[in-house]
Amino acid sequence: MSAVSSLLKTALGLAAGGVPVLPLRGKVPFGNCRRCADNACGGRPNMKNAGPCSCPGPCHAWAAATTDPDVIRSGVWRHAWLRASAVAYHPGGAWLTVVDLDNADAITWARETLPATQTVPTTRGEHWIYLGPMQSANAVRPGADIKSTMSYARYLGPGSGTMTALPDVVRALAVKDPAPARPAPQAVTVPALAGGGECRHRTPAYLERGIAMAEQRITEARAGIHATVYRTFLAVLSTHGRCGCLTDTHIGRLFTAAQAKGESPRHCTDAWTNARTTLGL
After folding, report:
1. C-alpha span between 124 and 17 (Å, rounded)
2. What's the rounded Cα separation, in Å, for the pair 177 and 186?
3. Which of 129, 165, 196, 212 has its CA 20 to 30 A from that of 255?
4. What is the separation of C-alpha 13 from the centre of its chain, rounded to a whole number of angstroms?
5. Closest CA to 88 of 68, 70, 110, 63
6. Whole-prediction pTM value?
7. Which H or E run contains 193?
């Protein structure tokens, strides 16, 4: 059996069991095609920069993972399989969580701390797989990452042991210190990002024009509302996110404009948080 046939057989077998799969080039997904470069297409549903995408190829990393055998065998995907070195899967999409242990010390910690479950040997460590999804998180402790929703893991075989339910001790690894209240148009309580409330490099009029233009951009959007909201939030934060000039009122105006276009408060909050994360704020 050729390498391509072996990868396809593995991918189709996983997909038949409800596990969304995608090809890997080395240890990473394939880059976006020209149409999807820089997410010009708007991304895929449930991505950080959510939006519609009809690209038939394996673009957008974990978001391209699928259980559709026709897609997996399609011409575009077959071309990717020819260059692929492994099969990956979206753990969260399969209702799974992978604790990725990268070295012997991390494995020792897991054996002393975590409930036994299905384990799969990796190049340098082990994958401990639990039944149940959670948020993904990198470096939750030395040598340990969590791969579940909005992430991918390399498929390295069925492993050994019996898979157990996702325990609270694993969920707790991704819990950070309580964050300040997130913004909402009804009662926006976002803390100052930096500075003392004054725009150090722009005039107040510049900020006002920027907020007004952002509101207009959201209001006039005719399609790809999710993507428009995210990109608008990103643009505002990239300009004023570090100088401390954004107030609750400014943020509330942006959220109100987005909700007027049908966005839910949760979508607004997620888009704002993701934009801050992207910019490292």
Report:
1. 27
2. 25
3. 196
4. 25
5. 63
6. 0.63
7. none
Question: pLDDT tens digits, the chain, 281 residues: what are they?
Answer: 677 789 999 999 999 999 999 999 988 999 888 888 877 776 765 454 444 577 888 988 888 999 999 999 999 999 999 999 999 999 988 999 999 999 999 999 999 999 999 999 999 999 999 999 888 999 999 999 999 988 999 999 999 999 999 999 999 998 875 545 555 444 434 444 444 445 555 566 777 877 888 888 888 877 778 888 888 888 888 777 777 778 888 888 899 888 888 888 888 888 888 888 877 77
Please state, in angstroms and rounded to a whole number, the distance separating the CA atoms of residues 136 and 148.
5
Q: Which residue has the tokens 């753990």?
A: 91
Q: How many Cα atoms are found within 13 Å in the side-chain-facing hemisphere of 220?
A: 7
Amino acid at 211: I
Give the containing element (helix H, strand E) for 180. none
